[in-house]
Specification:
308 residues, alpha+beta, Arc Repressor Mutant, subunit A, seven-stranded antiparallel β-sheet, 43% helix, globular
């Protein structure tokens, strides 16, 4: 039997120097890290760091945002919804429908198939059930089969949360205002945040400190636009566990986490065990379709294939 090796190749690593990648690594861990601290850690001048950061912000479309603790925010369980259509839907119409609700956080179609994936999270189970049923009816002309699974927990990566969702949360209004401002720019200074929310500098500084202690914010981090040539690949697994299942599951988790030590922490890549229609979901980004299919999906098929 021939064994397939899991191989991850990063276009980001090829295109940018180690100092630049380290800057992005540090800002993905904490986007509020000052230029002075970045310069000190990297043993570069503050001016050099500022220039490198400006260049990469422009070239990659960097946006500073938040990774939030959805459970502490009182959000209901996230879902992965898989929509399979009998005929090709009007994607512009779908996009308008999705934007009308605060619940869908990420949605994408699958090339060569009438399939759409949606990462959805709501302020209550009631909201999710209403949205789920309403969308099924509105898309019924396309012959939609709607499969929805609850996400137990996310093992890798995160999905940025829309500000519309934050606006629905039942939390202190001062904390909500600041979360909304930070979600749009988590690198903003206290002075900039003060202007954004229309509150006194000291009030904002106190609320920010309170937010950090609350645990509602997992990380001040960043996202970026999709790079040219990058291929996102999504996969769903449904299996019947057999002997050595835990060993095989651990092996795949270890493989997908292996990466360059200067990689960005808060990757858009997401892997998550599910309950419901499917058992496991993943979305990962690769430098090419060949790398993604031959060295990721084929690897998963080989390991998980033992469990049907």
């Amino acid at each position: 039997m021939s064994y397939i090796n899991y191989e991850f190749h990063s276009t980001f690593n090829d295109n940018y120097s180690v100092p630049t990648r380290r800057i992005m690594r540090m800002l993905s861990e904490n986007s509020r890290t000052s230029l002075t601290k970045l310069a000190s850690e990297l043993k570069l001048s503050r001016r050099t760091v500022k220039e490198r950061l400006g260049n990469i912000e422009r070239s990659l479309g960097v946006r500073y945002t938040l990774e939030l603790n959805e459970e502490l925010l009182g959000a209901s369980i996230p879902h992965i919804a898989v929509l399979k259509f009998e005929k090709k839907p009007d994607y512009e119409y779908m996009a308008k429908l999705l934007k009308k609700s605060y619940i869908p956080q990420l949605a994408f179609s699958v090339k060569g198939a009438n399939i759409v994936y949606i990462y959805a999270i709501s302020a209550s189970r009631k909201d999710y059930a209403y949205w789920d049923n309403t969308m099924s009816v509105l898309l019924s002309d396309y012959g939609v089969d709607w499969y929805s699974s609850e996400i137990i927990h996310k093992q890798l990566g995160f999905v940025p949360i829309r500000s519309e969702f934050i606006g629905k949360l039942d939390i202190d209004h001062r904390m909500k205002e600041l979360l909304l401002a930070l979600n749009e720019n988590s690198r903003a200074s206290v002075q900039e945040l003060s202007r954004a929310v229309g509150k006194h500098f000291n009030t904002v500084a106190y609320t920010l400190q309170k937010l950090q202690k609350s645990g509602l914010i997992k990380r001040f981090t960043l996202t970026m636009d999709k790079q040219k040539g990058i291929t996102p690949i999504a996969f769903l697994l449904k299996y019947v566990p057999k002997k050595n299942f835990e060993h095989d599951a651990a092996k795949t988790r270890l493989a997908i986490k292996s990466d360059d030590r200067y990689s960005i922490v808060s990757r858009y890549n997401l892997t998550a065990p599910l309950i419901g229609s499917w058992d496991y979901f993943g979305i990962c980004s690769f430098d090419s379709y060949k790398t993604g299919y031959e060295h990721c999906l084929s690897y998963f098929k080989q390991v998980a294939g033992r469990h049907e």
